[in-house]
Design brief:
This protein is an all-alpha fold. It is built from 4 helices and no strands. Helix 3 runs antiparallel to helix 4.
């Protein structure tokens, strides 16, 4: 499930601008109150990120997954993390 989820997010093609996980973080840090769904998505992403990074046993794999997660947090629609279960 984990690798499929990452692959789906990375390979997803979109022509519209999306609001990402990092966009939500920026909103929150700017003092804008997030909706319950937005907070839930952030929480799910954080759990997902920790799950993926803690599962890595080699330093090179850890850094590769870390970079992937940075891309996902910057470019994927935050709503994808409403569906994610760890």
């Amino acid at each position: 499930m984990t690798n499929d989820f990452i692959s789906n997010l990375i390979n997803k093609k979109t022509t519209k601008l999306v609001e990402s996980i990092n966009d939500l973080r920026d909103k929150e840090f700017s003092g804008i109150k997030l909706t319950a769904e937005e907070k839930f998505a952030l929480s799910n992403f954080d759990k997902y990120r920790l799950h993926i990074l803690n599962a890595q046993t080699e330093e090179e794999a850890f850094h590769y997954k870390y970079r992937q997660l940075q891309v996902i947090a910057n470019l994927s629609d935050w709503r994808e993390f409403l569906k994610t279960e760890i």
